[in-house]
Amino acid sequence: MLIQSVLFFILGIAATTLVLILLSPAIWRRALYIARKQIAAEVPLSLTEIEADRDFLRAKQAVELVKRDEKFELLAEKYANEKRKLDHAKEELYRLSHGENGANLSPCQPDAKTKERDGEQQSAASTHNRDEELQNLKNRIGTLEDELSEAQNKLETHKVTKDDIEKFREYIMDVAAQFTAKIANSEGASSPIPDLVKKARGKKSLAARIKGNLKEKTTRSGGASRRKKSATPKAAKEPKQS
Questions:
Q1: Are residues 148 and 164 in the same domain?
Q2: What is the predicted pLDDT for the residue at 110?
Q3: 102: how many CB neighbours lie within 10 A of its CB?
Q4: pLDDT (mean) for 118-126
Q5: Prediction pTM value
Q6: Listed residues 125, 141, 159: the one ending a domain
Q7: Angstrom distance (rounded) from CA 40 to CA 183
Q8: Which pLDDT score is estimated for 222?
Q9: Which of 43, 136, 146, 235 is the most exposed place for a label (fewest CB within 10 A)?
Q10: Is 66 among the domain residues?
Q11: Looking at the record's lineage, which domain of life comes first (predicted)?
Q12: Are 207 and 193 within 8 A, CB to CB?
């Protein structure tokens, strides 16, 4: 009875193993199909889709560059206007600080005391008005200097954006090339990517970068296979020597 139970248990394990072996290709194909579908939904696999995404990124960057150039021109124009206003305010301040007195006393007037009192009142009024105007001009000059420094800071900030955009574009292309090369290597001989990038020219194009990554990985895999082959004869010769 015990032997019969053990035999039934072994038979069940063998039957389960056989069913799993028969169903494993279908399960593997289904899992591979789902994985490819998810990858295709997230990342472009074909060279055409990658080039379309690259063109879209280029167009987007071009629009941003045009907008930044327009902002740069507006800031430059604003900077020039503020500088002209500042120069004009400085000239006005210099003119008022070195101006002549408004009250000119003429000699040999019949009513000297009245004229002198009127002159003092006019001089005091003109001095008060001049002080107010000078204070307003000083405030205006301070405001213009603040706006001028702010415009200069904005101009210096916008000057470095083109280099950053170019570096970011190169980084995106490198990442896309590496990812596409990994997909081509995982697909093996059935992958259409090596045929698509075979005629690529230049070093900066996306197809050329994919081709370079494929060559590097092929060289590494070839070196590993050669090392394995060289190690196999040595292992075969060792028993003969003993």
A1: no
A2: 45
A3: 13
A4: 67
A5: 0.31
A6: 159
A7: 11
A8: 58
A9: 235
A10: no
A11: Bacteria
A12: no
Residue the block writes with tokens 């603040």: 146
Domain count across the chain: 2
- The answer to whether 64 and 87 are in contact (CB under 8 A) is no
**Tell me: the pLDDT tens digits for 126-165?**
676 767 776 776 777 777 777 777 777 776 666 556 666 6
- The two structure tokens encoding residue 29: 């194909």
The C-alpha atoms of residue 77 and residue 17 are separated, in whole angstroms, by 80
Task: Give me the pLDDT at residue 17, please.
Answer: 92
Regarding whether 148 and 171 lie in a shared domain, the answer is no
DSSP structure string for the chain: -HHHHHHHHHHHHHHHHHHHHHHHHHHHHHHHHHHHHHHHHHS--SHHHHHHHHHHHHHHHHHHHHHHHHHHHHHHHHHHHHHHHHHHHHHHHHHHHTPPPS--PPSS-S-HHHHHHHHHHHHHHHHHHHHHHHHHHHHHHHHHHHHHHHHHHHHHHHHTHHHHHHHHHHHHHHHHHHHHHHHHHHHGGG-SHHHHSTT--SSSSHHHHHHHHHHHHHHHHHHHHHHHHHHHHHHHHHHHH-
- Band of the pLDDT at 101, cuts 50, 70, 90? very low
Q: What is the C-alpha to C-alpha distance for residues 58 and 22, in angstroms, rounded to an integer?
A: 50
Residue span of the structural domain in which 216 resides: 160-227
